[in-house]
Design goal:
Layout (H helix, E strand, L loop, with lengths): L9 H22 L4 H6 L5 H25 L6 H4 L3 H5 L2 H11 L4 H4 L5 H6 L23 E13 L2 E5 L12 E3 L5 E4 L11 H4 L2 E5 L7 E2 L2 H11 L4 E5 L13 H28 L1 H5 L3 H7 L21
Antiparallel strand pairs: 1-2, 1-5, 1-7, 2-3, 3-4, 5-6
Length: 319
């Protein structure tokens, strides 16, 4: 909740808390020292141990920035990085559009007052989950450059209002079904016409367009209704210029998806680096074959006779 898109004051407040906590921890470290047993057990005298510990801080930071980018937060606004996957899963912008339209009368006028960005966000092509990580290129390489908003497609069967079930995030294909307000399937586009019982033509489903370039259009032709029903699976309906970017129709992920993916990979590299250097520090005697007992014998100044631990130096107590 604290890192939600609508809570902008959380960033400076968290930094103030983290700074105060850091000051208290630094004062505690300055006033207290570890016990000799802990010092030897954790290899605190080894510089590589310090390196492995510092890598954890970078690992934690990369995990946090990846999570806040992917799930969405005040630090990653939609205007800069695009929508998140969960905006589509939770129908965030679709519900926002419906509330705006319901608050304005007449509804035909309300659709034309919607912000362009809000209408665009309610399109599945903005979903970072719809682009494969192995499909290189920007978003416009998918469906192309948006030219016009056709309008919002509404369907009806007699006096019953219907809506197209939108495609889930991780589906490449999905059946076209029309449901009522209770979620009951009322019509569909069947795979086999011979066994169809809820066909659009059979049930005389009608289409009406609100807002956009085709505002006020009403259609009852079966082929046109099915055509717009397929497009309505993807949210709002647009026309695209596919020639400018040589678009191939395959969705690409947004910079939000690439940022999250790349920083997750970096966090794993930091994690493995931490484990590697920590293991080298804790088990240095195994790596090098030099034990701590042998170091005490060979250290210059520890004994009057180098290598002879029976000849203790007078100054060894201070070493």
């Amino acid at each position: 909740i604290a890192l939600s898109t609508y809570t902008y004051g959380v960033i400076p407040s968290h930094h103030i808390v983290a700074g105060c906590f850091g000051i208290l921890v630094s004062l505690w470290h300055c006033s207290s020292t570890p016990s000799p047993i802990l010092f030897q057990l954790m290899r605190m005298g080894n510089l590589e141990g310090v390196l492995s510990t510092s890598i954890v801080a970078v690992f934690y930071a990369s995990c946090v920035t990846s999570a806040t980018m992917w799930y969405g937060s005040a630090t990653s606004p939609h205007e800069l990085y695009g929508t998140t996957r969960y905006d589509w899963d939770n129908a965030t912008f679709s519900l926002n559009i419906e509330s705006r339209v319901a608050a304005v009368r007449p509804s035909s006028y309300a659709w034309n007052t919607l912000p362009d960005a809000l209408v665009l966000y309610d399109y599945i092509g903005c979903n970072p989950s719809k682009g494969g990580l192995f499909r290189s290129g920007p978003l416009i390489k998918g469906h192309g450059v948006i030219q016009n908003w056709i309008g919002h497609a509404s369907f009806s069967q007699g006096t019953l209002s219907l809506a197209v079930r939108r495609m889930p995030a991780f589906f490449e294909t999905f059946p076209v079904i029309l449901i009522d307000q209770s979620g009951t399937v009322r019509a569909d586009i069947s795979f086999r016409r011979g066994s169809s019982t809820y066909g659009v033509e059979q049930l005389s489903v009608r289409l009406s367009i609100s807002g956009g370039t085709l505002n006020g259009l009403a259609v009852s032709n079966g082929s046109l209704v099915k055509n717009y029903a397929r497009k309505a699976q993807f949210g709002e309906i647009f026309t695209f210029d596919k020639k400018t970017a040589s678009s191939d129709g395959l969705w690409r992920t947004s910079i939000r998806g690439w940022y999250s993916f790349s920083h997750v990979i970096l966090s794993f590299i930091f994690l493995f680096g931490h484990l590697w250097h920590a293991a080298r520090s804790l088990f240095k005697d195994i790596w090098t074959g030099v034990l701590i007992s042998s170091i005490s014998k060979l250290e210059y100044g520890r004994n009057e006779k180098l290598g002879d631990d029976t000849t203790t130096s007078k100054t060894s107590a201070f070493l």
